[in-house]
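Re: the multi-chain job from yesterday

Posting the exact lines I submitted so nobody has to dig through the queue logs.
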Amino acid sequence: MTDHPTRTTALPWPRRHSTPFPQAAKIKLADTQLRRNLRKATTTIRAKRAAVVGELPDWEELREAARATKAATLRELDVHLLRLEESVTAAGGKVHWARDGAEANAMVAAIARGHGVDEVVKIKSLTTDEIDLNVALAEQGITAWETDLAELIVQLGHDESSHILVPAIHKNRSEIQQIFTDSGLDPASDSPADLAGAARRYLRERFLRAKVGVSGANFAIADTGSVVVVESEGNGRMCLTLPEVLVTVMGIEKVLPTWQDLEVFLQVLPRSSTGERMNPYTSIWTGVAAGDGPQEFHLILLDNGRTRALADEIGRQALQCIRCSACLNVCPVYERVGGHAYGSVYPGPIGAIITPLLQGMHGSESLPYASSLCGACYEVCPVKIDIPTVLVHLRDESVQSHTRPTVNDVAFRSLAWIFGDRRRYEKAQQLGKLGTPFGSVFRPWSASRGPLAVAPQSFRAWWQENHR
Amino acid sequence: MRVALFLTCFNDTLFPEVGKAVVTVLERLGCEVDFPLEQTCCGQMHLNTGYGSEAAKLATRFTGVFAPYDMIVTPSGSCAGTVREGYPTLLGLQGPPVHEFTEFLVDVLGVTDVGANFPHRVTYHPTCHSLRALKVGDRPYRLLREVRGIDLVELPAAAECCGFGGTFSVKNPDVSTAMLGDKIRHVLDTGAEVLTAVDTSCLMHIGGGLGHQRAGVRAVHIAEILAAR
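And the result, structure tokens for all chains:
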């Protein structure tokens, strides 16, 4: 067995770091290569998305249908999940229920050990990243080979993904060539063809060898027990068909009621994510079929905070997310800082809401504030998650989680007290003192803008003098 | 027509000339303007920063102050958005019916030519709230086009956020500054002398940055352009 590429030690930029967003952002803003990569990539994808969305006359109806289906499914999630279990079982698969990442990881490891293997091939799965499956498997002496090209780059570079869809967006071609060379792959140059060729040779070996494949799922159909993976490169198809055993780890929010529901989602997902009318490979399998593909199929249904999010009346809409990353690509904040600054496997606008919803506010207090509330994300979200509203709702939760009043808490509460009464407000204005609570709230203002000055005469003073 | 002016705490305290301009335009168009002196703040800052219970008190107070009026106009897209969308969605409160200034002129008074004269090169920044929450669309443009002498130029990448976002500009000052830099670059690329918008908050942010750079471009609220003769 050759090298185990999965790290088990901390990195300079561990995905789940505890640096508050403003400080992490400041560091990332100074990374000029990252800034350039992000601007180029997000500008390109934005244009592609706009083109393929613009050509559909019924885009808004599709969005509404997608939102409505997801919202309705979430309201009866238990019903659909139980039906899914029935259907998968009837089709020859086995369903496992995992309360959290630790349970899910233990299940995957047990299945692999049960088959006497020390390696698995993986399709890109954010859900498995969320629970750190690769690290858990490595601790049990099981290597998880990432087969998605960008995930492979991240894995070989002992790095962390910085984007939901294009995890290695922070790397350029020559950096990738270096990473490959250092890992024993042999790209002749940094041209895309040579890099892809080197990756293909490396991956083919592993596809043909591995007995166990691990995947996530984009959707699972309760009616039929069918599971869906949507991808661009074909590595998914390899992992889903070649191994003897297939294990799928799926967040419980991914279930859809009927086969027909795919009609809407398979239109909105590719257009919103890669800006394509259709993605190259859509794989759908139902249980096991004798003599064809994996002969053993396990579906692990993962909670890991999803029921916590579901209980939040305003926040639960975040579970409608189909992981397209359209919100990341239009976010002016994400464009300038990239994914690592968010300190979560889910970055960008969706990450800022789903991270505290899944794991609680502790450790995520700064994420709901990592937004100017511009609303560009809501505009492009194919399932119409009102991200700005959820952000504001979570800000309230963040303030309520303060064990002691902060400087800002005091400033805002005193400002509210002043605004609560006309005479207090007018007095504060007259004394030029409204500048002070405004000022303490806007303290870092003057660093890049001129000073904030209270007008010599307020409007209401002028009005009372001249107009009444 | 009797109209109540909801000026906003910002404009009342920092930019009174915006209020004077709104009064000028409305009176020129035959409205009787009232300014309920009990008004203070709609609570937007508190609502958006996570002080929901303080915002709820301010919202209840605001609703009471403006209860006697059928027509309420404000020269702030973000405050109009807070009352119309924020109050019901986040506070479960039905606020009074508020019109943003350009909406009021075009939809209620039915005018686009308000008799203004402003011979300067002007570029218009669509603020995020007015663009996406209120969807004022091209109303500001239709009003600006009728201004005599104006040289209106389109702002590149207009729909990109300027980076103000209220307390975002102080909680994330570095990202805010990076976004401001790009917005300023686009403004300067138009060769405009004046930048305008329907929100003084964004104008204060971009104008502050332009001033800090001694760029020779000033930020003027759309009401002041429409009031100019």
